[in-house]
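Z., the sequence and structure:
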Amino acid sequence: MKFSYTVATPDTKSPDVLAFRGDFRESLATLKELGYDGVELMVRSPRELDQEAIKKAVEEFALAVPDVCTGEVFGIDRLSFMDPDPTVRREAVQRTKEVIDFAALLDSQINVGRLRGSFRPGVDRADSLKWAKEGFSEVLEYAAAKNVRVLLEPVNRYELNFLCSTQEALEFIAPFNNPYFGLMLDIYHMNIEDKSTVASFIEAIDYCHHIHFADATRRYPGTGQIDFLNIMRALKALKYDGFISLEIMQKPDQYTAAKRSIEYLRLLDELS
């Protein structure tokens, strides 16, 4: 199995992000030393980045970039495809295109979680769903031209009220019939929404191109009750060949979280 850790790029300054923070090169050096195979980049606004310097740094440390995460495009800037304000929707799509350009530079893919938005009180649900489909259609057309895959991430009901389970996400992407549209599955959300995490992986494996590991506490795997060994065995049986990435609370501190995560994942890899 290949393992990566989420790293905040310099434009993503919130202290609450589920990612390694600080000097970017120092973060890469630390994660490389700990034994990670790659880094998932958590971006907010790629236009603010020295993208060539980031590309050079990940190449210097021989780290793959399996995914570029858009979570803080919503988390910090509150942009989404389903916002009632058309100006906000327009900026959400434009920002997503900029993330796609960044991912293309890094030979990566992107995920769309909270960026898709939610149904809002007082806003017609049919309109909201139309806006979501229009947003995805536009970014998918753009992504195909850049050879970048877009991954929809199901997000639990306590954070969003739209496309919460793996099954809902599968139903949503099916009509697009687009090879550039897939899924990114997060164990933390699956543990809340899906009847069986393993059954969902079996159902969705052909569409799943990236995975997040986090325990039920949102802390590093092994701190809660999720049976990660059973999940790892299932992924191997299904011949999953993508990355498993850590998107977790940085507790008790980010170095300890990263170190204990990779130690636990390597142990699971051996036992499975």
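The mean pLDDT is 97. The chain has ten helices and eight strands.

Let me know what you think.
H.
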